[in-house]
Amino acid sequence: MPEETSAGQNKSEGLQQKVDMLNRLVEISLVMNSTFQLDPLLEYLMFQATEITNSESASILLLDDKTGDLRFAAALGDVAEELIGMIVPRKGSIAGSIIDQEQAMIIDDVDKDPRHFDDIDQKLDYDTRSILGVPMAIRDKLVGVLEVLNRREGRYDEDDIRYITLLASQAAVAIDNVQMVESLEHAYDDLEKVNKLKTDFIAIASHELRTPLGVILGYATVLQEDAQGESGEHIEAVLSSALQMRSLIEGMTNLRYVSLDESELNFEKVWLNDVLQEAINDVQSMVEAKGQIFELEEPPEAVMIEIDRAKFVLALTNVLNNAIKFTPPGGVILLSAVRRNKEVWVRVRDNGIGIPADELEQIFEQFYQVEDPMTRKHGGLGLGLTIARTVLDRHKGRIWAESPGPNEGSCFTLVLPLPPGMIFNEMEVPKNHKKKAKEST
Ligand code: ADP
Predict the structure, then answer these.
(1) Using an 8 Å Cβ cutoff, are 105 and 97 in contact?
(2) What is the fold, at CATH topology level, of the domain defined by 2-256?
(3) Phi then psi dihedrals of residue 227, to 5 deg
(4) Residue in 358, 369, 372, 378 to alter for ligand 1 test, most ligand atoms within 8 A of Cβ
(5) Is the dihedral of CA 432, 435, 440, 441 positive or negative?
(6) What pLDDT, in 10s, does the model give residues 259-311?
(7) Which of 102, 180, 312, 380 has the highest count of CB atoms within 10 angstroms of its CB?
(8) Which protein residues are within 6 Å of ligand 1, measured from CB?
(9) CATH class of this structure's domain 262-439
(10) pLDDT tens by residue, 345-382
(11) How many CB atoms lie within 10 A of CB 214?
(12) If you measure from the C-alpha of residue 385 to the centroid of ligand 1, how many angstroms do you get, rounded to a whole number?
């Protein structure tokens, strides 16, 4: 082969090698940026570093912010496991010099370099012969050193420096990303814990408040029976405030349902009419106290549903309580239910103060109330609808609000999916379930 041709061939082979290496580095960078776990990421990085430079082992030393020393954070090779956590002093060591001089370094004969910290070699019975190390920086801040050790053949060269430098900068970005995700996860976990503490505290406190309140309500009711004139009015005021307090405490107790999990639901098959009736019983005294008219429109056919009865009743009573609360005395509350294909639609309609169009969704958010907290006339914690939505979500149903506008009344629709085969015709309904809900009140 003529000399010129062979030189040209060598050149193009060298070029091809570089293109291959660049492609490989791009691939490595893609892999590193797609993982959000630190340990596998570092292991992958070490492996690629040794492969690219034909080295026996690799390691990452990170600067300890407090002591200023360097600590092995990751390693690959025969003594990797023992190495992790070991400390190399910054002053007078090779890794320390790489950091201090902020530049890559090749040490071909480690034994002859007085900076080599051979404590570790002795402890681990390891023979470090050659080192290539590059500084690692995250957003201009030096964080550590990436080292490859003991080239299997030949010496480390400028190409090795270039590849390892590139790898180190890619790794720094990926490590930074992972650390940010990790610290976010920790912050989120801490928040969850604090949130749980708060919820537990409210649940316990509200539970403890119930007992003394029960005593107040009990004695006030007894006293009311005998009281006359002015003292009768006073007792009535005590009773009405105690009742108001009970509804607030119930709201607090229900706070835990805001983060209700589907696994906490106990599903059972029940007649829809029975469920409607149970909710009506819960709110009847309030309707009477406000002198409102309550109407019930039952479905034309008896329908069986599969629900967590207590939780669905809680959702429905929350909506009914609102209808009563936000409707003036003498107003009308209408509860209706119909089957629509494979769903049941339960509706609570009132002719009360209504809801502005732009707040129809926000009212389902935790603690959201349309009224200004400083001037509001109606009590409540702003949790009833949040809980109702959570309960419906867990039943794979839905709930929404409609209102023509202020003072035009509101309508809340609760939709439940029907389990297959759970629809009964009038003829098939057991006799005692045919009676109208109104009659059984
Ligand atoms: P609370 O009733 O304790 O304030 P909710 O979550 O049950 O909390 O309701 C949130 C808000 O939605 C209420 O404060 C009220 O502003 C509005 N709202 C709910 N139901 C009605 C209704 N039927 N009529 C008018 N406004 C309503």
Answers:
(1) yes
(2) Beta-Lactamase (3.30.450)
(3) -70, 145
(4) 369
(5) positive
(6) 788 888 899 999 999 999 999 998 888 888 888 999 999 998 889 999 999 99
(7) 312
(8) 318, 322-323, 326, 350, 352-353, 355, 363, 368-371, 380-386, 410
(9) alpha beta
(10) 999 999 999 999 999 999 999 889 998 877 777 778 88
(11) 12
(12) 7
